[in-house]
Design goal:
alpha+beta, 7 strands, single chain, globular, five-stranded antiparallel sheet, about 290 residues, DNA-binding, Endonuclease III, domain 1, 14 helices
DNA sequence: TGCCAGGGATTCT
DNA sequence: AGAATCCATGGC
């Protein structure tokens, strides 16, 4: 028996725009865009299940490959909802940005575009660390190598699908074991350190979500600075005000958008961002999007 | 080829 | 506190 779940995203919701973002790099290992559908391998303890996400009549359908307990179905449905940020009402964002000289012209170009999230905390922090100070293309390859080496996998309709490694597995590793993946010694140490924090229970999404200062909690972890913490805030925890102001992509997007011959200073960025209050993460995401039109 | 990449820790002044 | 320095490798 196959299991299915149907979700109704808050409108406007642009599924194809989600797929566009998720398909921006073919080395991405933990999901696959296959035509008009999205494939992902989920792990639930010892077992795994493939989710096939598609859009039908404005609703998002998730078809699972195996039978699930009701609780499991709920968990995976929540994952998908967070992943594509389906519950977000964009209207306040639209209203606020219409008064912004920088974002005003950009936002209407991508109607219904969601900030694509990364609901798994270990994956999100690891991805942020991997992406520090290297080009994205290379970062994807690092993620792919680590995933294919230590993540679960399953074949599905001719695709080999992978899940991001379990933190409990990575926590037991020595940095030297990760070095052959071309990950720097430092980053290997950082990621293993994060894996230990998560698998020990010291660090969890739930704790961060109920913390008064999740950024401070994260910055206390070695390898996690302000940029990484704010990135995780917006990409994983769902805070639309997460704001990685040091982000090079953000700087380049502002430079391009304003036709500047240099990157903006932090003072200038903060000045623009005064109009983004509460929506800094979304503003950043839309600026990233404007780089690749 | 050389600069730079979705930074951060460490070590200096 | 704030500025240099190193990390580590590949993309363009």
């Amino acid at each position: 028996m196959h299991m299915k779940s149907v979700l109704s995203p808050v409108q406007p919701f642009h599924f194809q725009e989600c797929l566009r973002f998720l398909n921006r790099n073919t080395d991405e290992p933990v999901w696959k865009v296959d035509g008009d559908r999205l494939l992902k391998l989920f792990t639930l303890g010892e077992k795994s299940v493939v989710g096939e996400i598609s859009e039908e009549d404005g609703a998002v359908h998730i078809q699972f490959s195996d039978t699930l307990e009701e609780e499991e179905l709920g968990l995976l449905t929540t994952y998908a909802s967070e992943w594509l940020d389906m519950e977000r009402d964009l209207q306040p964002f639209y209203d606020q940005m219409s008064a912004c000289p920088l974002l005003g012209p950009i936002v209407p170009q991508y109607p219904g575009m969601r900030l694509i999230r990364m609901p798994d905390l270990f994956e999100a922090i690891s991805w942020a660390i991997l992406g520090q100070q290297i080009n994205l293309t290379f970062a994807y390859r690092l993620k792919q190598r680590i995933t294919q080496e230590w993540g679960a996998s399953r074949e599905y309709e001719g695709h080999i699908l992978y899940a991001f490694p379990d933190p409990a597995v990575i926590a037991e590793m020595e940095p030297e074991v990760m070095r052959p993946m071309q990950v720097s010694q430092r980053k290997a140490e950082y990621i293993i350190g994060v894996a230990k924090e998560i698998s020990s229970g010291n660090l969890s999404k739930q704790k961060l979500l109920s913390s008064e200062n999740p950024v401070a909690d994260m910055v206390a972890i070695r390898g996690v600075g302000k940029w990484t913490a704010e990135y995780v805030l917006m990409k994983c925890l769902g805070y639309t005000n997460g704001f990685p102001i040091q982000d090079v992509g953000l700087h380049n997007a502002i430079k391009k958008q304003l036709g500047m011959d240099r990157k903006p200073t932090y003072e200038e960025i903060e000045e623009y961002a005064k109009l983004w209050t509460g929506w800094e993460g979304y503003a950043t995401f839309y600026l990233w999007r404007s780089l690749s039109s």
